[in-house]
Amino acid sequence: MVAHLTILIKKLDSLSNEEFHKYWSTSHPKIWLSVKVVQEKVLKYSQFHVDHDTSAALREHGLPVVEYDGGVNVWAATTEDLMSDVVVETIFQVFQDEEYKRVVIPDEESFLKRNEAVMMIGYDEDKGLDGKVFGLEK
Predict the structure, then answer these.
(1) Residue 69: closest CA among 113, 126, 125, 127
(2) Are 40 and 128 in contact, with CB atoms under 8 Å apart?
């Protein structure tokens, strides 16, 4: 079963929303995707960019909206491809790779609050009616 990791992230306070989204969208993927362990283990990588104006409007109407600036989605063939052995806590294999630590972490620290990122790991279940996955038949 394909494993799906989502990481919710917050921008650095020193960056505007525009600066954050532009850097994350254009510069960071080049660094992230250049790392060998990512190329070997990751099947798909996508970014979810929060619409801050619409989020603010929803909050004004009393709806609960999370205080994050984006979400990273990473898919791998198995949970084991994302995770290493459990020592004290679950550590993700990609995130403990030496090249990742040397190349990606310094870049991430230049635009996001790594200590406030939160993760979820699991699997996707596509839903539909009559054997057709919703949204894919169009």
Answers:
(1) 113
(2) no
pLDDT digits (tens, 9 = 90+) for 69-97: 999 998 887 766 665 433 223 346 677 78
**40-63: pLDDT as tens digits:** 888 899 999 999 999 999 999 999
E strand segments, 22-77 = 42-49, 70-76
The separation between CA 46 and the C-alpha centre of its own chain, rounded to angstroms, equals 7
Distances (CA, A) of 61 to 49, 58, 65, 67, 82: 21, 5, 11, 16, 39
pTM: 0.81
CA gap 59, 122 in Å, rounded:
28
- Strands (E) across 1-138 are located at 3-9, 42-49, 70-76, 118-122, 128-129, 132-133
Count of beta carbons in the 10 Å neighbourhood of residue 100 = 20
* 53 token code pair: 């104006």
- Provide the edge-to-edge strand list for the sheet that holds 3-9: 42-49, 70-76, 3-9, 118-122
